[in-house]
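S.,

Sequence below, as promised.
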Amino acid sequence: MNEPATRNGADGNQAGEIDPATLAELTRALLPYLGPYSITTVKRASRSTNDPQEAVRMVAGHIEDLGKRELFLKSARRIISNIRAAENSVAPAVTAPISSQQNTGGRPATPITPELMQRGEAALAPIIGPLASVLVMRYASSSENSRDFFERLAGHLRSAEERDSFFLNIRSGSPVASASR
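The prediction came back faster than expected:
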């Protein structure tokens, strides 16, 4: 009975639920193995457990090929580890924004506007899919400025090519470049 109340907290980040960013990354990692069914599989697992590692085990059970299942498990463990490491390092990053701003070419950071949020989602969605909107909403409310916002979004990209495509799209305001990858 108490579980729905815990999951429906006002801030969406209750202690008893799996972080939306983690779910987005797990869904993305599962896509090569289950295709569009990945979204449903991860959602169902997240409704059944509040433990990310248990959710990974549940989701991995849907991959029939043992070799592919092991590849997914390796990727999922890395994702969980990276997200936990990022969560643990948030405080130091927040305490040092002045020096990082001075090393970015002298341009002042702009505040996060609805237009920047739309631009971030438009650049991220072609790369990671519909879960981009969840990440945009989450980071728009917790980022200090536009640089921090876009860096947090880019933190969910796996390769240098994806990051390059993302930032190119941010600068141009058009998601066309990522479609040509």
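The mean pLDDT is 76.

Coffee later?
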